[in-house]
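Tokens as discussed.
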């Protein structure tokens, strides 16, 4: 917590924030990532519901959000060739403050990291 307080230049004896919803928690995490990194762009998956707040809900503002379309990747089957990474080549990661990842979504899909 000390490092976070110093990075954000918070005044006083800040100990944390209590929130009442997941949307608020995601929004605060995104805000903190922007303040710490000094960057405004975020990366997420196009099918991720990050919350009901205006800055998080779909469709997200493309000026601040890079939403990766993963529809084709979701339809890949074992032992098939699903290596279309061309979308990633155009992302300037030096401008990204955070990757906001939702491992489970309202559609019932649960994501895990790729094996390779």
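Sequence:
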């Amino acid at each position: 917590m000390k490092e976070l307080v110093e990075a954000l230049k918070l005044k006083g004896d800040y100990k944390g924030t209590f929130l009442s919803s997941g949307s608020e928690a995601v929004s605060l995490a995104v805000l903190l990532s922007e303040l710490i990194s000094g960057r405004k762009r975020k990366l997420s998956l196009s099918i991720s519901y990050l919350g009901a707040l205006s800055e998080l809900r779909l469709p997200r503002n493309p000026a601040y959000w890079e939403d990766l379309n993963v529809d084709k990747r979701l339809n890949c089957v074992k032992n098939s060739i699903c290596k279309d990474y061309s979308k990633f080549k155009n992302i300037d990661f030096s401008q990204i403050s955070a990757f906001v990842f939702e491992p489970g979504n309202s559609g019932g899909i649960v994501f895990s990291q790729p094996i390779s």
